[in-house]
Fold:
Amino acid sequence: MNAITFDRSKAKFPIPEVATSFIAGRALPSDGTGERIPVICPATEELISTLREADAQEVDQAVMAAREAFAKGPWPRMSVDQRKKIMLQIKQILLDHADELAYLETMNAGISTNHVRNFHVPRMGFNFEFFAEVASQDSGAAYLQTKPYLSIVTREPIGVCALIGPWNAPLALCSMKIASAIAFGNTCVLKPSEFTPLSLLRVVELINQTDLPKGVVNLVNGRGQVTGDALISHPEVDVVSFTGGTTTGRAIASRAGQNLKPVALELGGKSANIVTASANMERALNGSLLAIYSNNGQQCLAGSRILVDRKIADEFVSKFVKRSEKIAVGDPLETKTEVGPLAYEAHMKRVLGYVDIARKEGAELLTGGGRHTEFNKGFYMQPTAVMAKSNDARVCREEIFGPFATFLVYDEIDEAIALANESEFGLVGYVWSEHLPTAMKVSQNVRAGTIWVNTPLTRELRAPFGGYKNSGIGRDSAEDCKMFFTEAKTTTIPLEDFPMAKWGA
Ligand code: TXE
Structure:
């Protein structure tokens, strides 16, 4: 692809010409070693920046900065109240730059500015406040049952955390990783996706303008197999938190396993969205459209397999198709845009490839199915829906990760539940029903980490989020993140003198 060079005078906020690593409180120079990788705006195909890739040596520098800050720096040793004050400073500085961060995210990831500004940016701020609270309210346990001993259990930070993030929602997802790692006294090295380095580089710069000690939050930029692999293989990394595709997750888990590092993996999904005959049709329609098309269809928790009761299928599908055709696809910087471009060219081609796969499998194309004809530049795709022949079809089994809905029709709720469970994934499930026993039956029988009843995409940070089966290992929540990012320590003390064997006396 021949990228068009971006006219920098058009930029609403500064975009760095070269995105480098940020280590121990400073950005590394743009003229260092490492491959140069183009950073493309998916809405215009313009070259908006260049990423200078961190090689193994630069990754080592970042990990050792995090190690130094962990072993000798004040952060792990500070009182939680002091840490909380700094976490709140981070929240504030990020929210003070909300428009700039939203702009960088939209320019680089193609997510509509409305969505980023109204959901991702506030969530990013809240992540720091939430985990500051969680860490500050934490307490240990004491056991007195075995006399004369008192055993106390405390939790200590686990050390240097490698945080590897994806390109579909960099701000929202990676801010959660940083906040949950550092709140408990850890230090970290973040590696954003090579496709979307810009917003997170600015986030890490801003975080480093607060009172946070240098070296606590570091960032390396580069491709997964170079920079990412060097990071997760580094012996001074204690734990790996990853969000991304299932194939990459497998590779990361086996690499981390060689060094016995704990891993948390938040991976793909092919979640069932069950629309029953007892649904409130209008709400189910609104929710189903959001569940598949929001964030340009690029979300792990998408309701991408819509299972609809035969009794209402004709009406529901025809309304869904009509609404899909009216969705405002366009420039993600425009506030009226609902669906923007896909994040990068190869991904758009992959998603479009599923249209041919669907056709070959005998699916009926209900709407869309091609690049958006209104644009001669940008990775725009028409919101697409197909009616599959059976759940064995690849469009029912594989995560497509774009504005691509697959329908199946069912007759009985037990059949819908069985179809929902016939999947290698188990991240979330949706059910639309005004009949509580039906909703509860789905909730209790669908094997997925989160079930949404009559609502799409609601995240409660206190409650666990994560996947069954190939959708991941581990959960995000107040408690789960604490368990993952800390080590438990038991200290045992006798409270009185006690008889002890006197060997050699
Ligand atoms: O993501 P990857 P890809 C799914 C979605 C998508 C598919 C492929 O179905 O179509 O995955 O996307 C880093 N060692 N999701 O290939 O590879 C990489 O640099 C260390 C679901 O673009 O998973 C990036 O930072 N790191 C999903 C991160 O992994 C490595 C979000 C994610 O990239 C690495 C994204 C390696 N060997 C895609 N290889 C979700 N769960 O939301 C890659 N990386």
Summary: The pocket of TXE is lined by residues 164-166, 168, 191, 193-194, 223-225, 228-229, 232, 243-245, 248, 251-252, 266-268, 300, 399, 401 (CB under 6 Å).
